[in-house]
Amino acid sequence: MVENLVIVESPAKAKTIEKFLGKDFRVISSFGHIRDLAKKNLGIQIDKGFAPVYEVPKEKVKVVNELKKNAAESKNIWIASDEDREGEAIAWHIINVLDLDPGNTKRIVFHEITKEAIEEAIKKPRLVDMNLVNSQQARRILDRLVGFEISPVLWKKVQPSLSAGRVQSVAVRLIVEREREIIAFRSDSSFRVTAIFLLSQKDNDTILKAEASQKFTREEDACKFLELCKEAEFKIASITVKPGTRSPAPPFTTSTLQQEAYRKLGFSVAQTMSVAQKLYEAGKITYMRTDSTNLSKLALAKSRDAIISEYGEKYSKTRQFKTKTKGAQEAHEAIRPSYPDKATIAGNQNEKKLYELIWKRTIASQMADAIIEKTNIGIEINNSPVLFSATGEVVKFDGFLRVYSESADQESNDEERYVIPPVKKGMPLYYNTVNATERFTSPFPRYTEASLVKKLEELGIGRPSTYAPTISTIQNRGYVVKEDRPGEKRKTRLLELKSGKINASTKTEIAGKEKSKLFPKDIGMIVNDFLVENFSEIVDYNFTADVEMQFDEIAEGNLKWTGMLDKFYSSFHKTVETSLENKNKKTGARVLGNHPETGEPVSVKMGRFGPVVQIGNQTEESKPKFASLLKSQLLETITLDEALNLFRLPRKIGEYEGAEMVAGIGKFGPYIRHNNKFYSLKKGVDDPYVITLERGIELIVEKTNSEKQKVIQDFGDIQVLNGRYGPYITKEKLNYRIPKGTDASKLTKEECLKIIDTSEKKQKNS
DNA sequence: CAGTGAGCGAGCTTCCGCTTGACTT
C-alpha cells in the first residue's frame, strides 16, 4: 500500500514532483485527457439534453489500466491536473473512470513546479469544481457539433473528406482574405529624396544622412527639386534631443516563442514545439504549452542573481508581467530556463539555439530599461520650403539590450540605428549626393505560420496546444500551402545629384518575392466562401470570443451549460439545414469568355482532380476540352489568355532516334517526354513553350550520362549506387548506408551483404 | 512520379484540446 498517489497530466512533471514530495508520495501521469466523446457518430445525445457519450480511446486503455492499478494500491489520491477548465475536466474524468469517491478524492492545483508551491497546494485540497467541468463539456460539445455537422455539408456541396471547425475555418479565412487584399492591391510609387551631407567641403569622412520631408509623385517634380538642391545652400536649422527608454518584452508564451523562433532561427511552428518538447523532457526548460507570462518567485530570484553576478546590480530590475491575451487561462508559468543561471546547455544545435533564445528572453525580461537618446536635426534649404531631417539614436545605457531584443515581423526598410555626428545649430552643410529614388507601396504581407499564430492568439482563437496542429491541418486538407514565390521584376527610376550633375537611370528590382508564406489554394477559397455564405456566425472573427464569454459564465455558475448549448444549437442546426437546400454544388466556376477562333465558351471550375479550364460544353456530337491549371494559378484570377495558353501543352517538338519528343508541364513541373521517359526541364533556364529539339536532346544526353555514373557496382539484386548524399547500397528497394571511409567502388558482394546484415540488426535493437 | 475531367455506388471522411511516443524517412 502506498500512502499517497498524485496524478498529474505530464510524465516529465510527475518525475520532477516526485523528487520534491519524498517517500510517502507516488506521482504518476494521465498523459492528458483519458476520455473523449465517442469517435464514431456524433457522440452526443442531442434529444437527451446534449448528454455526451464518453469512451476511453484505444490508445489510452493502457494508461487507464495503469492509473486504476495505482489507485487501488493507494490510500489517498490527489489529482493535480492543471488549473483550467481542461484540467478540471481531466480530474473529473479520472474520478469517473477510476470509480473514485468524489467526496474523498483531493483536488489540488499549483501554477509552478517548485517545492514551495507544491507543499502549499497539498495543504489546501478542494473538491472538483463542477461548474468548471461543465464549461469544458460545453466547449467540447460545441466544437463537436460545429465540426461534425458542417463537415458533412462540405462533403455534399463541395468535395469529400473536407473539414470545417471553429478554429481551422477562421485560420483559413484569414489567409484567404489577406490574399484577396493583395490581389486587389494596386501599387503606387513616389520619389523619396535622401541626401548625404558633408560637414565641411574638405572632410569627406564625417557625413550626415538625411531625408526630405516631401515625397514627389512625378519624376519631373523630383528632378526639379534636385535642380534646386544643386544651387542651394543648406544649413542646420534645429536640433532636438529627446530622452526615452525602452523596456524588455515579457518572457515567452507558446505563441511568442513560436514567433521569435521563426524570426530569429527560421524554425517552423512545429519544429519549435518539437525542440521545446525535448528541452522540457530533459528538464532544461519549464512547460512549453502555456499562455502565461508569469515567472515563479524562485525564477525571479535566480534570474536576479544571475544578472547581478554577470552584469552588475544596475542591470537588474525584477518585473512581473501581466498576461494580456484574450481567454488566457494561465495554468502554467511562462516558458523559462529551469535554471536561469545556465546560459547554455549541452544538446544538438537546434536545442542549444532554442534554449539560448529562451534564456536570453527570460533574463532580459528581468533587466533594467535601456536609456535612449533620440536626436532630430532639421536642415533648411535657402531656395525651397522643403526641409531635410536626420534622425539618430544613441543608446545611453544598454540595459536589457545587452542580452536581447525582440525582432519585428517585417524587416523594416529603415536604415539601422545611426549615430549623428556632432553638429551645431546654424552650421552650413554641403551635399555629397542627393538621390531621388522611386519607391513602391506594398500590400499587407502574407501570413507566415508564426504571424498566423499571432493573429489567432489576438482573436482568442485556439490554445497553446493547438496552434501547431491547426497549422498542419489546414495545410493537410489542401486549403493552404506554405511556399516560396520568386517575385517579379519591376523597373524603378533613380535620379542622382553628384558634383553638380543630375544623372537619371533605370534599375530593376524584384517585387513580391516570398519565402515560406501561406497561400490559399482554390479549394480553400471555395470552402471559405461557402462557409461565409452559409455559416457566417461560425466563421465570424468574434465567434470564439462570444462563446468564450458564455463558457466563463458557465464556469462562474451563472449559466446552465445545457441551456447554452440548446440556444446555440437550435439556431445553428437550422443554418445547417438551410445550407443543404440549394441543390447546386459549389465549384468556384467562372466564365472567362469565348474562344477567339471557335467562339466556344471558356470557363474554369474545380474538377475532380483539381482546378481545370474547359473549352466548350458537353453535347451529343462534341466533348469539351480540358486542361489543368498550373500550381501558381488561381480560379479566381486566371485570365482568358492564360487559360488558352494552357492548351498549347503538351507540345510536339520533333523527333529523336525515331521517337517523338513532347514538352509539357506535369505534376512536378515542366518536362520533356521521349520514349515514355520523362526529363525535367531546368528551372529558370528552359521553358516548355519555346524549348527546341536540340535543347531536348541535350537534356536527354545529360540525364543518360548521369544515370550511367549512378551505378557504381551491379551484383544483380544488390547494387551500389551514387546518390545525393554519396554512395549507398540498395537491395529490394531498401537503402543502406556505407560505413565511413569505405571505398564504394571496391566493395564485393559479400561485403555488401555484411553491411546490410549489420544495419538491419542495428535497426531491430534500437 | 508527370495522363485523367464519366461511370454503378459501398463505405469512408470530419471537430478542439489535453498529453506523448510509435512510426517512417
Number of strands: 30
Low-confidence stretches: none
CATH architectural grouping of the domain at 2-128: 3-Layer(aba) Sandwich
- Estimated structural class: alpha+beta
Could you please say which CATH topology of the domain at 2-128 applies here?
Rossmann fold
Average pLDDT number: 93
- Total count of helical runs of at least 4 residues: 20
Please bin the fraction of helical residues. 25-40%
Strand order of the largest sheet: 9-10-13-12-11-14
Describe this structure in words.
By secondary structure, this protein is of the alpha+beta class. Among the domains are: 2-128, Rossmann fold (3-Layer(aba) Sandwich), CATH 3.40.50.140; 254-368, Topoisomerase I, domain 4 (Orthogonal Bundle), CATH 1.10.290.10; 590-648, no CATH class; 651-711, no CATH class; 715-765, no CATH class. It contains 20 helices and 30 strands. The protein has a 6-stranded antiparallel beta barrel with strand order 9-10-13-12-11-14. Strands 2-1-7-8 form a 4-stranded parallel β-sheet. The chain has a 4-stranded antiparallel β-sheet with strand order 19-20-21-22. The chain starts with a strand and ends with a helix. The model has no long low-confidence stretch (mean pLDDT 93). The structure holds one DNA strand of 25 nucleotides.
From the structure above, extract its key features:
DNA-binding, Topoisomerase I, domain 4, 6-stranded antiparallel β-barrel, Rossmann fold, 4-stranded parallel sheet, alpha+beta, 766 residues
